[in-house]
User: Fold this.
Amino acid sequence: MVRDSFYRYLMTQRNPNSADEIEQFANNAFLDSTFPKQSSDFDEVSKYLEENADYLPSMTIFDAAWQKYLDERN
Assistant:
């Protein structure tokens, strides 16, 4: 089974005209050239965001987006 990366899923959530937190996260991740685009590993993506993503106001937004990603994969 081929698993899409989290980034690939997140890009389906982009909406530049929305105030939704996950959609704003997706918009900002799109502009982040160093985002781990190939990863489907929670720990790797989470660590990257904690250390590098000044655009993410709260890790709870990532957690919610990750749960949606898992829900869509299953």
Summary: Helices lie at 6-11, 21-30, 42-52, 59-73.
